[in-house]
Amino acid sequence: MAEPSGMDAFAHLGSEVREALSDQGFSTPTEPQRKAIPPLAAGKNALVLAPTGTGKTETAMLPVFDAIVDDRDAPGDQPREGISALYITPLRALNRDMMDRLEWWGDRLDVEVAVRHGDTTQYERSKQADDPPDVLITTPESLQAILTGSKMRLALEDVAHVVIDEVHELASAKRGAQLTVGLERLRRVAGSFQRVGLSATVGSPDEVGRFLVGCGRRDPEREGDRAFETVEVAAGTRTDVRVLDPEITDRDSRLAGELAIDETTASHVRTIREIVGQNESTLIFVNTRQTAEALGSRFKTLAERERTDGTDDDTTDTADDETVDPTEIEVHHGSLSKDVRIDVEDRFKTGELDGLVCTSSMELGIDVGRVDHVVQYGSPREVARLLQRVGRAGHRRDLVSEGTVVTQGGDDTLEAMAITRRAGAELVEPANIHHGSLDTVANQVVGLVMDDGEIHAREAYETVTNAYPFRDLSEPRFQEVVRELDGNRLLWLDEERDTLEKSGGTWQYFYANLSMIPDESTYEVYDMSSRRGIGTLDERFVVNFAGPGETFIQRGEMWRITAVDEEEERVEVTPIEDPAGEVPSWIGQEIPVPRPVAEEVGRLRGEVAAALAAGSTPEAVANDLAGRYPADTDTVTTAIESVTDHVEAGHPVPTDERIVIEGSARTVAVNATFGHEVNETLARLLAALVGQRAGSSVGMDVDPYRIEFEVPRGVDPGTFREVLETTDPDRLEAYLELALKNSDALKFTLAQVAAKFGSVKRYREGRGKFGGDRLLAALEGTPVHDEALREVFHADLAVEETAGILAEIQSGDGSSAGTRLATARERTPLGTAGRSAGSEFLVPENADADVIETIKERIRNDRVILACLHCTDWKHTTKVRRVRDQPECPECGSTRIAALNPWDDETVAAVRATEKDDEQERRTKRAHRAASLVQTHGKRAVIAMAARGVGPHNAARIINKLREDEEEFYRDVLRQEREYARTQSFWD
């Protein structure tokens, strides 16, 4: 059949909707509308994939509005009195946008549209129950709630259409798995209904389509009301993205001094501001909230300087009478308060702001008006993320979206080049669906009991397994979950009648667990000067850092903590001007680099090495790559410097087909370009088996291109090579289960899963250990433990792919196809290129004597500044092992000696200063706390404060434990280092 074109697509709609289209100025359909409206108007299920800004919402909703109008006006039929359509989005902010967007259509067509989410008032909820709207915009969690209400459940009987926006975001989350069962519960109420999924792009359309429509035990997949069509409009061909690693200029040197940052970062700040200045509205995406805060703070500092002194950093001279309009850039992310987020969204939409630094909070299509350009700061890590983000630009009917990825050389640039090329070729990562998540089953079984009060176990099982993620759930496994729920008194299992019924704990559990998002405590940040909330902080940050007098950055501004209210979970702050504030830490934000992207970086390395070996120059190689990838020659030249140095040093180059193992002293690095998940899997395997052979613990640090290990004496690269060559790939999963048996990752996940099973009270991380070991012992062998293990494997590991790599290593055929091993004689340029300054290893929780000895030896050889705070004249830098048991000043004989890190000359200067600002006062207080510890506890205090991330406050806690045994003292030091290692990226 010929594809509809022009007005033909709108011809599938009724006269009222066509007239409304004319009123709105819609004369020609967009490409998604041309392709999707005909099947949707025919009532078919569909997955619609199209770039942001191409009218996907109208594509889905125009046929829905038309069906509602047609049903209402049909002669002789009883019109629907309940809800005709649900529009489900993953974010409340999207609900607000959709309401703004759909309200006009509703008013024009006499169709009532309403919103329902967690912030909806009780009055509005009652109104919706008594007089249901025709279209209800809601979230997956609110759907859970309305399915159980008697009046709303009656209103849901009329549902004929369900539209799920940003379906890719839900497909890869437990929220999405929960939603699929929720839709099957809705099907029990409303019967069959049309399902429409909307997304900018997905890498596995067929699987996401099945996720959307369900599989159906009684209905064969892709038949009957489970059939669906995929309508796809290529996103990659509509993007124009360049990769840029800025050169450092004289202006950057000046800027670096003004902002107290390095010249490379200064060049990034300057380049991004130039791009913002060249466009009317720019989104600046970053990968973590802490980066957003740090970058936003620097932009604000520059804007404030422009306002106060009338100079523009992007010009060399400004006339005295010339007024400079500062570049206004704000920050937007999920830990800022709702009011702050809405404020910056509105200011950006109206043009008051030139740019917005944002995280994934802006990925999902929140309406901020026209966006001319998108900057991605640092590699976006994934093709899907790049397309989703850059797709926000060019929001005007079929325009090309323009973007710039600003990178930092080396791996970051090569990775961005690979991702940008893959985006143009539409090589998008597949959805990572949670298949068979048992805590979701537990949650939804309780939901089914809430729906009916009593349900036959067979019917509950069939409802759950009609959802695509649970199609393979076995009856015995389902029965285990039900018995666990019965044991936890969340429902009552009547085994004689084989029914599931409400119990005393059903209601309370269900409404406390409407969401599958892990329940982690957050503290409100409350500005005492304006008497309003400005955002939130993660509990771990509060526990480990936040105390009265400490400073940090949020919303791009500096704040000093005045009080922490544990009971109210509130941090009270006042605004200050202080460039030394720490960036708040948020947990679990790192975006994993997929294997295909990392392998392309490996292939690029191999190409460069081969060309250089054949006599080509680095400049010629860079020119060649710049012709094939969207990056200029200078950017590529900088990116391949490490490869060039590596080849010139005569080392084997790690590529997608070669693992290179190298080492020196107590460090071994395995260079493997396989991405985060495979490298994490290899790391855990090697740490466990090498540690077992050595009879000692092995610390590890993982990135997409290398794994670094801290090893005991006697372990060298050969040990790691032997393990890779002899480990049975078929036993990999069993080895990993043993390696994870007592890990923090499993304990943390187990506590969250146990909460969703009702096995324990809600877990709140940060309030002690919560009996992690006891929880593991109590729940081993239960579906709770099995689900926690499954989730760790799902989130962090790639067992099947890693087993394949081990098999290739061991094939022994010597061919170039497959993975080979090589060993370098020393640490190499590529092997050390990925490690950031100051990063530390994640060492095991229960360190043995050998690890303690290693830590002890390292600290003894670290350098420390000793400074007298009595006469303030004497300062001396020495190794910790040379410090006396009770240090004293050789000039005045005082024992008031501060022990400081070797880079902390600024603190010494602050102590000596006669006039002090707030920052100098803070440094002086810190120095005096350090001196008091040394005066009281001597060398033991020096040792504690020489450790990584252990300041006077934490050193005092360690010393005050009064450990008599030296090993126990070092264990405490190690535990603190370990905590710092987890969060050190937030402190650098």
UniProtKB/TrEMBL annotation:
The keyword DNA-binding applies. Residues 37-207 form the Helicase ATP-binding domain. Keywords: ATP-binding, DNA damage, DNA repair, DNA-binding, Helicase, Hydrolase, Isomerase, Nucleotide-binding. GO terms for biological process: DNA repair. GO terms for molecular function: ATP binding; catalytic activity, acting on DNA; DNA binding; helicase activity; hydrolase activity. Residues 311-322 have a biased composition (Acidic residues). The keyword ATP-binding applies. Pfam families: DEAD, DEAD_assoc, Helicase_C, WHD_Lhr. Residues 300-322 are annotated as: Disordered. Residues 267-439 form the Helicase C-terminal domain. Residues 301-310 have a biased composition (Basic and acidic residues). Belongs to the Lhr helicase family. Lhr-Core subfamily. PANTHER family: ATP-DEPENDENT HELICASE LHR-RELATED, ATP-DEPENDENT HELICASE LHR-RELATED-RELATED. This is DEAD/DEAH box helicase. It comes from Halorubrum tibetense.
